[in-house]
Amino acid sequence: MNKLLIIMVAVIFNYGNFSSSLHKDKESDKIEKFSQQSMLLGKFSEKDLLKEPYSRWFKPRYENYEPKKSSIKTISKHINDYKITLYMGTWCGDSKRETPRLFKVLEESGFKMKNLTAYAVDHSKRTPEKTEENVNLHRVPTIIFYKNGKEVNRFVEYSQESIEEDIAKIVSGKEYKNPYAK
Protein backbone atom coordinates (compact mmCIF):
# COMPACT_ATOMS: atom_id res chain seq x y z
CA MET A 1 0.00 0.00 0.00
CA ASN A 2 2.82 2.42 0.86
CA LYS A 3 4.47 1.79 -2.52
CA LEU A 4 1.18 2.53 -4.30
CA LEU A 5 0.74 5.75 -2.31
CA ILE A 6 4.29 6.86 -3.14
CA ILE A 7 3.73 6.13 -6.85
CA MET A 8 0.43 8.04 -6.85
CA VAL A 9 2.04 11.06 -5.14
CA ALA A 10 4.92 10.98 -7.62
CA VAL A 11 2.53 10.80 -10.57
CA ILE A 12 0.40 13.66 -9.24
CA PHE A 13 3.50 15.77 -8.48
CA ASN A 14 4.98 15.14 -11.93
CA TYR A 15 1.64 15.82 -13.63
CA GLY A 16 1.52 19.18 -11.85
CA ASN A 17 5.00 20.04 -13.11
CA PHE A 18 4.12 18.86 -16.60
CA SER A 19 0.88 20.85 -16.55
CA SER A 20 2.61 24.00 -15.34
CA SER A 21 5.34 23.61 -17.96
CA LEU A 22 2.61 23.33 -20.59
CA HIS A 23 1.07 26.50 -19.22
CA LYS A 24 4.45 28.26 -19.41
CA ASP A 25 4.91 27.11 -23.01
CA LYS A 26 1.49 28.52 -23.91
CA GLU A 27 2.42 31.80 -22.24
CA SER A 28 5.77 32.00 -24.05
CA ASP A 29 3.95 31.25 -27.32
CA LYS A 30 1.63 34.17 -26.61
CA ILE A 31 4.59 36.41 -25.87
CA GLU A 32 6.39 35.28 -29.04
CA LYS A 33 3.27 35.84 -31.16
CA PHE A 34 2.83 39.30 -29.64
CA SER A 35 6.49 40.05 -30.29
CA GLN A 36 6.17 39.02 -33.93
CA GLN A 37 2.97 41.00 -34.34
CA SER A 38 4.58 44.12 -32.91
CA MET A 39 7.65 43.79 -35.15
CA LEU A 40 7.59 46.22 -38.05
CA LEU A 41 8.59 44.48 -41.28
CA GLY A 42 9.28 45.76 -44.78
CA LYS A 43 9.23 49.23 -46.22
CA PHE A 44 8.15 51.91 -43.77
CA SER A 45 8.21 55.65 -43.11
CA GLU A 46 8.74 57.82 -40.06
CA LYS A 47 4.94 57.94 -39.63
CA ASP A 48 5.02 54.21 -38.83
CA LEU A 49 7.54 54.81 -36.04
CA LEU A 50 5.28 57.48 -34.56
CA LYS A 51 2.59 54.85 -33.92
CA GLU A 52 2.39 52.47 -30.95
CA PRO A 53 4.31 50.46 -29.90
CA TYR A 54 7.30 52.01 -31.71
CA SER A 55 6.55 55.58 -30.61
CA ARG A 56 7.40 54.57 -27.02
CA TRP A 57 11.08 54.44 -27.91
CA PHE A 58 11.18 56.55 -31.09
CA LYS A 59 9.59 59.80 -29.86
CA PRO A 60 11.66 60.38 -26.70
CA ARG A 61 14.92 59.46 -28.41
CA TYR A 62 14.11 61.73 -31.36
CA GLU A 63 13.02 64.65 -29.19
CA ASN A 64 15.91 64.39 -26.73
CA TYR A 65 18.69 64.07 -29.30
CA GLU A 66 20.63 67.23 -30.09
CA PRO A 67 23.01 66.78 -33.01
CA LYS A 68 26.15 68.88 -33.19
CA LYS A 69 25.41 72.03 -35.19
CA SER A 70 28.80 72.01 -36.95
CA SER A 71 28.12 68.52 -38.31
CA ILE A 72 24.60 69.49 -39.38
CA LYS A 73 26.07 72.44 -41.27
CA THR A 74 28.49 70.12 -43.13
CA ILE A 75 25.76 67.59 -43.84
CA SER A 76 23.41 70.31 -45.13
CA LYS A 77 25.94 71.29 -47.81
CA HIS A 78 26.16 67.78 -49.28
CA ILE A 79 23.27 65.58 -48.18
CA ASN A 80 20.91 66.23 -51.08
CA ASP A 81 23.44 64.74 -53.50
CA TYR A 82 22.57 61.37 -51.95
CA LYS A 83 19.87 58.77 -51.78
CA ILE A 84 19.83 56.78 -48.58
CA THR A 85 18.58 53.31 -47.72
CA LEU A 86 18.09 52.37 -44.08
CA TYR A 87 17.79 48.83 -42.76
CA MET A 88 16.78 48.53 -39.11
CA GLY A 89 14.97 46.25 -36.70
CA THR A 90 12.30 47.45 -34.30
CA TRP A 91 13.51 44.66 -31.99
CA CYS A 92 17.16 45.82 -32.08
CA GLY A 93 18.67 48.04 -29.37
CA ASP A 94 21.20 49.63 -31.77
CA SER A 95 18.41 50.41 -34.24
CA LYS A 96 16.28 51.90 -31.47
CA ARG A 97 19.18 54.16 -30.53
CA GLU A 98 20.38 55.22 -33.99
CA THR A 99 17.17 55.39 -36.05
CA PRO A 100 15.59 58.31 -34.15
CA ARG A 101 18.95 60.10 -34.31
CA LEU A 102 19.17 59.50 -38.06
CA PHE A 103 15.73 60.98 -38.67
CA LYS A 104 16.57 64.00 -36.52
CA VAL A 105 19.89 64.58 -38.33
CA LEU A 106 18.30 64.23 -41.77
CA GLU A 107 15.44 66.56 -40.94
CA GLU A 108 17.68 69.20 -39.34
CA SER A 109 20.03 69.10 -42.32
CA GLY A 110 17.22 69.69 -44.83
CA PHE A 111 17.42 66.26 -46.44
CA LYS A 112 14.62 65.58 -48.92
CA MET A 113 12.96 62.69 -47.11
CA LYS A 114 11.59 61.33 -50.40
CA ASN A 115 15.19 60.22 -51.03
CA LEU A 116 15.18 57.96 -47.96
CA THR A 117 14.00 54.39 -48.31
CA ALA A 118 13.61 52.58 -45.00
CA TYR A 119 13.15 48.86 -44.40
CA ALA A 120 12.46 47.05 -41.15
CA VAL A 121 13.97 43.57 -40.94
CA ASP A 122 13.22 40.49 -38.87
CA HIS A 123 15.73 38.79 -36.56
CA SER A 124 17.33 37.09 -39.58
CA LYS A 125 17.84 40.52 -41.23
CA ARG A 126 15.25 39.78 -43.92
CA THR A 127 12.47 41.86 -45.41
CA PRO A 128 9.32 40.65 -47.18
CA GLU A 129 10.59 42.45 -50.30
CA LYS A 130 13.96 40.61 -50.09
CA THR A 131 15.83 43.87 -50.83
CA GLU A 132 18.53 42.90 -48.33
CA GLU A 133 19.73 40.14 -50.65
CA ASN A 134 21.55 42.65 -52.86
CA VAL A 135 23.23 44.80 -50.19
CA ASN A 136 25.38 42.46 -48.07
CA LEU A 137 23.39 43.12 -44.91
CA HIS A 138 24.78 41.58 -41.70
CA ARG A 139 24.01 44.04 -38.89
CA VAL A 140 21.42 46.68 -38.15
CA PRO A 141 21.03 49.48 -38.38
CA THR A 142 22.77 49.78 -41.73
CA ILE A 143 22.49 53.11 -43.53
CA ILE A 144 23.66 53.00 -47.15
CA PHE A 145 24.57 56.22 -48.97
CA TYR A 146 24.20 56.25 -52.77
CA LYS A 147 25.44 58.93 -55.15
CA ASN A 148 24.64 58.75 -58.86
CA GLY A 149 23.18 55.29 -58.29
CA LYS A 150 26.32 53.81 -56.71
CA GLU A 151 27.01 52.98 -53.09
CA VAL A 152 29.51 55.47 -51.66
CA ASN A 153 29.68 54.28 -48.07
CA ARG A 154 27.64 52.89 -45.21
CA PHE A 155 27.05 53.37 -41.51
CA VAL A 156 26.78 50.03 -39.72
CA GLU A 157 25.37 49.35 -36.25
CA TYR A 158 27.00 52.13 -34.20
CA SER A 159 28.84 55.38 -34.76
CA GLN A 160 32.58 55.95 -34.65
CA GLU A 161 32.11 59.44 -33.18
CA SER A 162 28.41 60.30 -33.37
CA ILE A 163 25.89 59.54 -36.07
CA GLU A 164 25.98 63.13 -37.37
CA GLU A 165 29.80 63.28 -37.39
CA ASP A 166 29.97 59.94 -39.20
CA ILE A 167 27.38 61.08 -41.77
CA ALA A 168 29.21 64.40 -42.20
CA LYS A 169 32.39 62.47 -43.09
CA ILE A 170 30.54 60.22 -45.52
CA VAL A 171 28.68 62.96 -47.42
CA SER A 172 31.63 65.37 -47.53
CA GLY A 173 33.90 62.69 -48.99
CA LYS A 174 36.25 62.40 -46.01
CA GLU A 175 37.71 59.06 -45.11
CA TYR A 176 35.26 56.97 -43.14
CA LYS A 177 35.14 53.28 -42.32
CA ASN A 178 32.32 51.64 -40.43
CA PRO A 179 33.37 49.29 -37.61
CA TYR A 180 33.11 46.23 -39.87
CA ALA A 181 34.79 47.57 -43.02
CA LYS A 182 37.88 45.68 -44.14
Give your account of this protein's structure.
- The protein is α+β, with helices and mostly antiparallel strands and 182 residues long.
- It has two domains: 1-37; 42-171, Glutaredoxin (3-Layer(aba) Sandwich).
- The protein is 47% helix and 15% strand.
- It has six helices and five strands; from the N terminus they run H-E-H-H-H-E-H-E-E-E-H.
- The chain has helices at residues 2-37, 46-49, 55-64, 69-78, 93-108, 163-171; strands at residues 42-44, 83-88, 116-120, 142-147, 150-156.
- It has a five-stranded mixed sheet.
- Helix 3 packs across helix 5 (93-108) and helix 4 (69-78) packs parallel to helix 6 (163-171).
- It starts with a helix and ends in an 11-residue tail after the last helix.
- Residues 8-36 have low confidence and may be disordered.
Main attributes of the structure:
182 residues; alpha+beta; Glutaredoxin; globular
Largest sheet descriptor: 5 strands, mixed
Q: Number of domains in the coordinates? A: 2
Question: What is the fold named in CATH at topology level of the largest domain?
Answer: Glutaredoxin
* Rg, Cα atoms, Å: 23 Å
Order of helices and strands: HEHHHEHEEEH
Proportion in helices: 40-55%
CATH superfamily of the largest domain: Glutaredoxin
Average pLDDT confidence is: 86
Number of helical regions: 6
Query: What is the annotated CATH architecture of the largest domain?
Result: 3-Layer(aba) Sandwich
Segments where pLDDT lies below 50 for 5+ residues? 8-36
CATH domain class of the largest domain: Alpha Beta
Spatial strand order of the main sheet: 1-3-2-4-5
What's the shape? globular
